[in-house]
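Researcher: Re-running this chain for the archive, since the previous output was lost when a drive failed. Same request as before.
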Amino acid sequence: MTELARLARLRQPGVYAELQTTPKGLRSDQIDPLRRRHGSNEVRHDRPAPAIVQFLATFKNPFILILLFIGVIMYITEVVLADPEEGPDYMGISTVGVMVLISVSLRFWQEYRSGRAAEALKAMVSTTVSTTRQIGDTVVTAEIPIEQLVPGDVVQLAAGDMIPADVRVVRAKDLQVNQAMLTGESMSAEKMSDPVAGLEPDRILEAGNLAFMGTSVVSGSGTAVVVHTGDDTYFGAMTEGLGAGRPETSFDLGVKKVSYLLIRFMVIMVPTVFIINGLTKDWSQALLFGVATAVGLTPEMLPLIVTANLAKGALYMSRHKVIIKQLNAIQNFGAMDVLCTDKTGTLTEDRIVLEEHLDTAGRLSADTLRLATMNSVFQTGLRSLLDGAVVEAAGPDLVERIRREHGLVDEIPFDFARRRMSVVVNDGDADLIITKGAVEEVLAVCTAVEVNGATHELTPGLLSALDRLVAEQNGLGKRVLALATRRLPAGQGDARRDYSTADESGMTIVGFLTFLDPPKASAATAIEALRAHGTAVKVITGDNELVAETVCGKVGLDVGSIITGAEIDRLDDDGLDAIVGETTVFAKTNPLQKARIVDALKRNGHTVGFLGDGVNDAPALRTADVGISVDTAADIARESADIILLEKDLGVLERGVVEGRRTFGNILKYIKMTASSNFGNMFSVLVASALLPFIPMIPAVLLVQNLVYDMAMLTIPWDRVDREFVEKPRKWETRSLTRFMVFIGPISSIFDITTFALMWFVFAANTPEQAALFQSGWFVESIISQTLIVHIIRTGRIPFLQSRASLPVLISTGLVCAFGLVFPFIGWGQALGLVPLPWSYFPWLILTLVAYCVLTQGVKVWFIRRFGGWL
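Model: Regenerated structure tokens:
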């Protein structure tokens, strides 16, 4: 930070000299050496860790640590303290080692692939910066990815840009920068190019001529020289060694709550099972069984399966032009029941055409077009589609003549408070201020009107006539901008003055520009599809009420009563909460009002998405549950969003919403399967431990069963989801999960206990010498019933008949059932202590499984009728 403080104290020539650059930028032969020395302009914190680090990190999972603990206990009991006559037994240790290796490898591979996929998706949405460089003898200003910046680069800044590195400002025009992410101060900071005397390194954030990576330009324009990039920036130093710090969503909290609930069961169960079995059986075997039970009761694959579902959903969406920047945003995407969107480009074609250039009497005027073209050609700040439409309508001949006859003197950039911008050009012996902007804001600084070439005082009568002209154009669905001028004596030499917003006064209104952006043909269909899926669409626009009403009506929105930004400012939060749910269209809103509307909807219990692409949308994008932008949006809008659309179309968004719900549905399946199964197993283990004179299950076999089942569940992300599940928004509900566990979980215990009775009374497996037969019978029944029930839980319909699982799920569950049947008969199972079952056992098994499935399906039907839902 010392170098930044030193450069802040220097004048511009000294800054260029220190950084070995010029106002024309770096030479092309300087770029590669600087990039090799300083690296890519990325903060290390934002990049995934090396593969070996990610692999080692998977061992930190508490469930893996439990398996390793079991391995240590087995080594002590079965190797170190083994009976000298029988010798050490390595089978159990080998089984645990294989489980650890498989579990860790699967988790690492899935998370590594998911991370790579997320990085690839982010790379599809690159942030660029306008950079000036010397290519041979030519000075070129062009957009380049911010990762390619090096110290010494000269960058051009405008409203909506992210500050791409730590920079020294060398030119500023009303440059306002939001530094809240570094300082916590919500008010923007004004930046200037003058040296700052006596600046100390510990106070560089207060320097008026420095700007820092990650902050954003609110308004104005400027030029800056890059000083530090990547990890050398203030942001890089601040985040070194820190995690991402992403706030947890309701989905994150819900998954964590499920994990902690099952871990609490484990904490209670392990000592209980250990003590019961220790007092009645062997203490060393009791310890192993207790810890193995803990593994069986905890969802060790939950993070892996959740990540796999999210990654699969993100990749699917990317093929349909929806890029997920933050994987966990998928759940909120599916839960979204209100979508707030702007009008331009979403409901309209985003194909702005200058329809007419009118004088104040409503006649076509070449002079109005000439003045508007001068304003659009000479501005250097935030350019819009409207400026492009003006320049296109003017044609190259008029543009060339304007550049030849006039020169830029100064500029008063656009900001969202004034909603206008001005350029000052030399016009003979005078400076001509040309102001273009929203009609109300331009008229507010006018005192005169030009009518038929003569200037008159702007009387109330003339003002009413202008308002009628504008309203007529708005009623036709056109957007109207006003154009005003003011002539001032030109300064000479050093007397040339700097212009500011104070000079936008005493102006003369000279005409109007009307623009047409026709409604999209697909908008009405997309809005109806969203409505059918339970997502209401609300429009929040900066346009006036008449334009908003016309366009929204054409795309099938029930406009109703329109609320304006001025009305919102007069309401407190309670008043806004009362009307926001019933209002469909909000007009003439500024950035803070947009964020207030979103916040009010959230307070009313909605999951809110916001679709926006401008710098004025950034506050609302951050406030929304899911921020949605487009790849052509302003830098700050893309950075604030969770989801990026490659096409600004509500149809694309609707398909993304459906996929978000499908992804969430598959995650819910696994969570409810696991939670209910483990809840039931808790009762089964307690009953068996209390009543049997031997360990109810061989610890190593219990671990194998748990691993095989979880591996089968890795196919869940590819499962189908019933149509009715995706027809309405889905939120995380812990109460629903608890209810599911309580009613569905104990059903498995009923049939576990009937299997205990079967093995005890029918097959006489009721002594320690017959323990292996008992354990084999319970193993087969337990693993097959646990797997078959997946098909009942995955759907609210009748499984196999009304709803069939996807092929991957059918294959994986079929293989697990086959494994369960043959495991006691093969060498691996017998080496762990199982024995072949008599053939007379299998008719009883079929009867048990059929009864289990029928009862569970019956309880499911009752559950849906009683509580109105299943998943």
